[in-house]
UniProtKB/TrEMBL annotation:
Residues 7-67 form the Inner membrane protein YgaP-like transmembrane domain. The keyword Transmembrane helix applies. Keywords: Membrane, Transmembrane, Transmembrane helix. This is Inner membrane protein YgaP-like transmembrane domain-containing protein. The chain crosses the membrane at residues 16-34, 40-64. The keyword Lipoprotein does not apply.
Length: 70
């Protein structure tokens, strides 16, 4: 029996959307002239969206009790 630290709680369409939006935010943060701290904050939030998209787990959705229907 394998144990997991988390269960995927994002459907495939939402994982794809989070990955695309996250990449757009990261690229946009470095293309638009912004204050350096804001640029890095946007890049970090975009990177977290990309990570959630790849992993398929969202901590906020888990706290709200969201689960995938099997």
């Amino acid at each position: 029996m394998s144990t997991f630290f988390f269960q995927k709680n994002l459907p495939v369409w939402e994982r794809s959307l989070r990955t695309i939006v996250g990449l757009a935010v990261v690229v946009g943060a470095f293309l638009v002239p912004l204050e350096p701290w804001l640029k890095w904050a946007l890049a970090a939030s975009g990177a977290s969206f990309v990570a959630m998209g790849f992993i398929g787990f969202c901590p906020m959705c888990a706290m709200a009790g969201r689960k995938l229907k099997s």
